[in-house]
Amino acid sequence: MQERNGEITFQGNPLTLLGAELKVGDSAPDAALLGNDLSPVQLSAYKGKVCVVSVVPSLDTPVCDMQTRRFNEEAGNLGDNVAILTMSMDLPFAQARWCGAAGADKVVTLSDHRDAAFGEAFGLLIKELRLLARAVYVVDQDGIIQYIQLVKEVTEEPDYNAALEAVKKLV
After folding, report:
1. Active-site residue among 55, 64, 125, 139?
2. Tens digit of pLDDT for each residue in 126-147?
3. I need a labelling partner for 156 at 20 to 30 A (CA). Which of 14, 63, 145, 150 fits?
């Protein structure tokens, strides 16, 4: 497996990402994740919709909480042809608990805890922490990546406006 050193940091300390780097224009890899009810969910099940793929290390941290709440708020303005998916290594039960406590009812939380298949396929698995790096992807209806932001410092928020502009160009 490819290792990419120093592309991101955590509190200024460089980390290693596992998996190949994706680029705009690439097909979004398919990956098996778990829904909050432990059912298997394929990323490809969302083909036909514009998808915001919001990736966070853990919903139980302040920045991940803010990121997911913000995309949940924005989801209502984007229409039925847009799906907002939040991926993390949190257990499905923890994701469901967080959604309930946060009132997050417009984002779909999916867990990569079992196999890290999503993290490896998207090149976002942090070797040192076995968590996912913070990133945002916008994937068009045909499954092609149209926007990517890999947040360089894990403790910082993504550029929400840039991601939302990318979505608006597709709907």
Report:
1. 64
2. 999 999 999 999 999 999 999 9
3. 145
